[in-house]
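Ops channel
N.P.: pipeline sanity check, posting one input/output pair.
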């Protein structure tokens, strides 16, 4: 089933491209950059986001082959369209040295195992917990927001060597993280991925 794009969204992307030349980016990187900028109306994401086209290509194939998608919070899950997600925050409990978000990541990993796409847009502690698990993710969209731990957790993600979409600043959030995953969902499958 093809996605029907609303005229307002079409016009929004036209205006975005009139203000920012995104043609220099490879296809999936461009899709993520544009969708993230669209979600936040923030052109600075073009230079703030960090990702690798090769990793996005593998993640795109995994996503369209049915790999599970895990969200750190319900706000991220609600923003991901056309795909069921796993979010275990409602089942999680905090404890000494463990936030609810970190516990939710543990619970989700027990449910989905390796090879999932993880979308973290709220809690730096969720991203920190994922980094200590042996999750072997298809991709980590690590875009938590905030002044405490957000930039540091994203730097740790980039240093981990895991396939990732992150950004350098404290900016981020649920809408931005969901937009990055939606960019991969909406992007067409290439003939090579069908082999």
């Amino acid at each position: 089933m093809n996605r029907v794009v609303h005229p307002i969204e079409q016009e929004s992307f036209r205006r975005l491209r009139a203000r920012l030349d995104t043609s220099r980016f490879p296809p999936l990187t461009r899709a993520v950059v544009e969708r993230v900028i669209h979600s936040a109306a923030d052109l600075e994401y073009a230079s703030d986001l960090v990702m690798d086209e090769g990793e996005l290509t593998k993640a795109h194939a995994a996503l369209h082959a049915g790999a599970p998608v895990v969200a750190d919070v319900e706000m991220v899950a609600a923003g991901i369209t056309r795909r069921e997600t796993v979010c275990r925050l409602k089942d999680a409990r905090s404890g000494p040295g463990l936030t609810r978000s970190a516990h939710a990541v543990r619970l989700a990993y027990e449910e989905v195992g390796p090879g999932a796409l993880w979308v973290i847009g709220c809690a730096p502690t969720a991203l920190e917990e994922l980094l200590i698990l042996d999750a072997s993710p298809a991709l980590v969209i690590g875009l938590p927001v905030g002044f405490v731990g957000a930039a540091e957790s994203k730097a740790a993600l980039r240093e981990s060597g895991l396939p990732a979409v992150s950004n350098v600043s404290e900016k981020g959030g649920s809408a931005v993280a969901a937009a990055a995953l939606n960019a991969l969902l909406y992007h067409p499958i290439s003939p090579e991925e069908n082999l």
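N.P.: looks fine end to end. The chain has a mean pLDDT of 92.
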